[in-house]
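Duplicate of earlier report; DoxX-like family protein input re-posted below.
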Amino acid sequence: MWLWTIAAVVQLASSALALMDGQHLLADLVAEVAQGFPAEAAATRERVAVAVLGLLLGTGPLLALLELGCVIALNRGKRWARVLLALLAGGAVVHAMIAVGGLRSAYLVGLVVASGIAVLAVIVSFQPAARVWFGGGEK
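Output:
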Protein backbone atom coordinates (compact mmCIF):
# COMPACT_ATOMS: atom_id res chain seq x y z
CA MET A 1 0.00 0.00 0.00
CA TRP A 2 2.80 2.41 0.85
CA LEU A 3 4.48 1.88 -2.50
CA TRP A 4 1.27 2.87 -4.28
CA THR A 5 0.89 5.96 -2.14
CA ILE A 6 4.50 6.98 -2.80
CA ALA A 7 4.06 6.40 -6.55
CA ALA A 8 0.92 8.55 -6.64
CA VAL A 9 2.51 11.36 -4.61
CA VAL A 10 5.63 11.39 -6.81
CA GLN A 11 3.44 11.45 -9.91
CA LEU A 12 1.35 14.33 -8.55
CA ALA A 13 4.45 16.29 -7.53
CA SER A 14 6.12 15.75 -10.90
CA SER A 15 2.99 16.84 -12.76
CA ALA A 16 2.62 19.93 -10.57
CA LEU A 17 6.24 20.93 -11.12
CA ALA A 18 5.88 20.41 -14.87
CA LEU A 19 2.79 22.65 -14.84
CA MET A 20 4.92 25.42 -13.37
CA ASP A 21 7.16 25.03 -16.43
CA GLY A 22 4.11 25.15 -18.71
CA GLN A 23 5.07 28.19 -20.80
CA HIS A 24 8.44 26.68 -21.67
CA LEU A 25 6.85 23.32 -22.50
CA LEU A 26 4.22 25.03 -24.66
CA ALA A 27 6.89 26.95 -26.58
CA ASP A 28 8.80 23.71 -27.20
CA LEU A 29 5.65 21.94 -28.40
CA VAL A 30 4.67 24.81 -30.71
CA ALA A 31 8.15 24.69 -32.25
CA GLU A 32 7.92 20.92 -32.66
CA VAL A 33 4.47 21.14 -34.28
CA ALA A 34 5.69 23.95 -36.55
CA GLN A 35 8.61 21.80 -37.66
CA GLY A 36 6.35 18.85 -38.44
CA PHE A 37 3.55 20.86 -40.06
CA PRO A 38 5.05 24.02 -41.59
CA ALA A 39 2.08 24.66 -43.91
CA GLU A 40 -0.44 25.00 -41.07
CA ALA A 41 -1.49 28.37 -39.71
CA ALA A 42 0.23 29.56 -36.53
CA ALA A 43 -3.07 29.57 -34.64
CA THR A 44 -3.72 25.94 -35.60
CA ARG A 45 -0.24 24.88 -34.53
CA GLU A 46 -0.71 26.60 -31.17
CA ARG A 47 -4.11 24.97 -30.62
CA VAL A 48 -2.64 21.55 -31.33
CA ALA A 49 0.26 22.22 -28.95
CA VAL A 50 -2.12 23.37 -26.19
CA ALA A 51 -4.28 20.26 -26.65
CA VAL A 52 -1.28 17.91 -26.55
CA LEU A 53 0.16 19.68 -23.50
CA GLY A 54 -3.19 19.55 -21.71
CA LEU A 55 -3.54 15.86 -22.48
CA LEU A 56 -0.02 14.98 -21.36
CA LEU A 57 -0.02 17.10 -18.21
CA GLY A 58 -3.64 16.34 -17.28
CA THR A 59 -3.29 12.58 -17.49
CA GLY A 60 -0.63 12.40 -14.76
CA PRO A 61 -2.76 13.84 -11.94
CA LEU A 62 -5.77 11.84 -13.12
CA LEU A 63 -3.81 8.58 -12.96
CA ALA A 64 -2.43 9.52 -9.53
CA LEU A 65 -5.89 10.29 -8.14
CA LEU A 66 -7.28 7.02 -9.50
CA GLU A 67 -4.35 5.18 -7.90
CA LEU A 68 -5.05 6.84 -4.55
CA GLY A 69 -8.72 5.87 -4.78
CA CYS A 70 -7.77 2.27 -5.51
CA VAL A 71 -5.26 2.30 -2.63
CA ILE A 72 -8.16 2.95 -0.26
CA ALA A 73 -9.97 -0.09 -1.67
CA LEU A 74 -6.74 -2.10 -1.56
CA ASN A 75 -6.35 -1.22 2.10
CA ARG A 76 -9.81 -2.71 2.71
CA GLY A 77 -8.73 -5.99 1.08
CA LYS A 78 -10.63 -5.62 -2.20
CA ARG A 79 -9.18 -7.99 -4.79
CA TRP A 80 -10.35 -5.95 -7.76
CA ALA A 81 -8.27 -3.00 -6.54
CA ARG A 82 -4.95 -4.70 -7.18
CA VAL A 83 -6.05 -5.73 -10.68
CA LEU A 84 -7.15 -2.18 -11.45
CA LEU A 85 -3.92 -0.84 -9.93
CA ALA A 86 -1.93 -3.15 -12.21
CA LEU A 87 -3.76 -1.67 -15.20
CA LEU A 88 -3.18 1.85 -13.88
CA ALA A 89 0.53 1.07 -13.48
CA GLY A 90 0.64 0.06 -17.13
CA GLY A 91 -1.07 3.31 -18.02
CA ALA A 92 1.42 5.24 -15.89
CA VAL A 93 4.34 3.59 -17.69
CA VAL A 94 2.91 4.43 -21.11
CA HIS A 95 2.10 7.98 -19.99
CA ALA A 96 5.63 8.49 -18.64
CA MET A 97 7.20 7.22 -21.87
CA ILE A 98 5.06 9.51 -24.02
CA ALA A 99 5.41 12.56 -21.76
CA VAL A 100 9.17 12.26 -21.33
CA GLY A 101 9.62 11.50 -25.02
CA GLY A 102 7.45 14.39 -26.18
CA LEU A 103 8.20 17.11 -23.64
CA ARG A 104 11.51 18.49 -22.49
CA SER A 105 11.37 19.11 -18.76
CA ALA A 106 13.58 17.80 -15.98
CA TYR A 107 10.51 17.68 -13.74
CA LEU A 108 9.02 14.87 -15.82
CA VAL A 109 11.74 12.48 -14.66
CA GLY A 110 9.50 12.04 -11.61
CA LEU A 111 6.96 10.33 -13.88
CA VAL A 112 9.55 7.69 -14.73
CA VAL A 113 10.37 7.25 -11.03
CA ALA A 114 6.66 7.00 -10.17
CA SER A 115 6.16 4.41 -12.91
CA GLY A 116 9.03 2.33 -11.58
CA ILE A 117 7.59 2.45 -8.08
CA ALA A 118 4.16 1.49 -9.43
CA VAL A 119 5.59 -1.52 -11.27
CA LEU A 120 7.36 -2.57 -8.08
CA ALA A 121 4.07 -2.18 -6.19
CA VAL A 122 2.31 -4.43 -8.72
CA ILE A 123 4.95 -7.11 -8.25
CA VAL A 124 4.65 -6.91 -4.46
CA SER A 125 0.85 -6.97 -4.51
CA PHE A 126 0.80 -10.22 -6.49
CA GLN A 127 3.34 -12.07 -4.32
CA PRO A 128 2.06 -15.20 -2.53
CA ALA A 129 2.31 -13.47 0.85
CA ALA A 130 -0.23 -10.89 -0.35
CA ARG A 131 -2.91 -13.60 -0.64
CA VAL A 132 -3.33 -13.50 3.11
CA TRP A 133 -4.36 -9.87 2.92
CA PHE A 134 -6.89 -10.56 0.17
CA GLY A 135 -8.41 -13.60 1.87
CA GLY A 136 -6.78 -16.24 -0.33
CA GLY A 137 -4.60 -17.72 2.37
CA GLU A 138 -4.57 -18.31 6.09
CA LYS A 139 -4.58 -15.24 8.29
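The first helix runs from residue 2 to 20.

Merging into the original ticket.
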